[in-house]
Amino acid sequence: MSSSGSAKVFIVEDNFIYSYLVESMLKDYGDFKITTFGSAEECIALLGNNPDLIILDYKLGSGMNGLEAFKIIHASQPKVPVIILSSQNDVQIAADFLQLGAYDYIEKKDLEEAMEKLRNSILSALGKKE
User: Fold this and answer.
1) Which of 15, 35, 92, 122 has its CA 20 to 30 A from that of 2?
2) What would the pLDDT profile of 27-63 be if each residue is shown by its tens digit?
3) Integer distance in angstroms from the first to the last C-alpha of the chain?
4) What is the pLDDT of residues 62-96, one digit of tens each?
C-alpha cells in the first residue's frame, strides 16, 4: 500500500453506472485512492502508478477485452491482485482467468450479491479486516 496507508485501487469498467457503484461501495468501506478507467488501455498506460488492487471488467466496449488486458497487467505487475468483475457467466472464461493468476472472478448477475462478494474479496486481497 502507499505510504499514506490508503490503498490505490484501479477500476476498469466501461459501464459508468457500475463503475460508480463500485467506487461508492469502496468509499463506504475504507480509505481508498480510487482511479477509474473506461478502457483497459487507459489502465495499462498508468500501471507505473503502482496500484495495490485492480478491479477489471471482462467485456469492455472498445479495444482489448479483460482477458487480453489481464495478461498485460499480470506480466507487468504480477503481485498486484486483480479481481475480475463481469457479466460474463461462461465457466471457461472464469477458469481461464483464475488459471492465469486472477485473484477472484465475480459475476455481476445479482447486484447486491456481487457487491458483497466484491467487498469481501477486496478486503481479503488487501489483507484488511472488517
Assistant:
1) 15
2) 887 789 999 999 999 999 999 999 999 999 999 877 8
3) 17
4) 789 999 999 999 999 999 999 999 888 788 889 99
Task: Return the C-alpha cell found at 66.
Answer: 479483460
Distance CA 45, CA 118 (A): 25
CA distance 68 to 66: 6
Rounded to two decimals, the pTM is 0.91
Find cell 477472484 and name the residue.
Answer: 104
Range 99-103, long-range pairs (CB < 8 A, 24+ positions): 100/67, 100/70, 100/71, 100/74, 101/74, 102/70, 102/74
Residue with cell 498485460: 72
Using CA atoms, how far apart are residues 120 and 126, in angstroms rounded to an integer?
10
- What whole-number distance in Å separates Cα of residue 44 and Cα of residue 92? 25
Q: Buried b vs exposed e over 45-64: b needs ≥16 C-beta within 10 Å?
A: eeeeeebbbbbbbbebeeee
